[in-house]
Amino acid sequence: MRIDPKTTNPVDVYQALVGLVTPRPIAWVSTVDAQGRPNLAPFSFFNVFSANPPVVVFSPTLRRDGTKKGTLLNIEATSEFVIHIPTNDLVEPMNLTAKELPEGESEFDLAKLTPIPSEKVKPPRIQESPTALECKLQQIIPLGHGPIAGNLVIGEILLIHFEDRLLGADGKIDPHKMQSIGRLGGDYYARTTDLFALKRP
């Protein structure tokens, strides 16, 4: 199979990429609009790119009709967001928040999640999540135009939250306790339960 992005439907390019580039970590992003109304949505074009300063990057793609998603509009308006790392026990509510809701309706309510105040930014944290990264926007880089075009959101982490129960005996986050999930292609996800260790040379 060969795919030339220049001559292939963007949807087909997208399907190939999300099937090949796996597993992908998931940014579960809370934002607020200019009126302070919360929004919550998952994104799997996501990773951490620096520790000094701590920087995360994720990409809300445009909808298939070429319009911007609420998360991107909210970050453009407020320059703040909070990223949570979905864990195995939160798969179902995370998936619910991927639903497109009418303006004014809350994904927190739909997924029966509890918004709690953040310390350094306006968007709320998810009380049920054991993790939260409070972020301020550094830059948004549009990567294209039209359906499924990406928008690289670069944010500096202002505050890191995680529950002590995630720590192992060595004082570091234990992946066995974290139980984060990853995104594959289509409707598939991966659990981080089949783990192995490999010492670096």
Automatic annotation (TrEMBL):
In the UniProt record, the signal sequence range is: none
Q: Which Pfam families match?
A: Flavin_Reduct
Q: Which UniProt keywords apply?
A: Flavoprotein, FMN
Q: What cofactor is needed?
A: FMN
Gene3D superfamilies on file: Electron Transport, Fmn-binding Protein, Chain A
| GO molecular function term, any single one | FMN binding
> Domain Flavin reductase like: where?
20-172
> SUPFAM superfamilies from the xrefs?
FMN-binding split barrel (SSF50475)
Coiled coil feature spans: none
**Family, similarity comment:** Belongs to the flavoredoxin family.
Identification of the protein by name? Flavin reductase family protein
**Species per Swiss-Prot/TrEMBL record:** Telmatocola sphagniphila
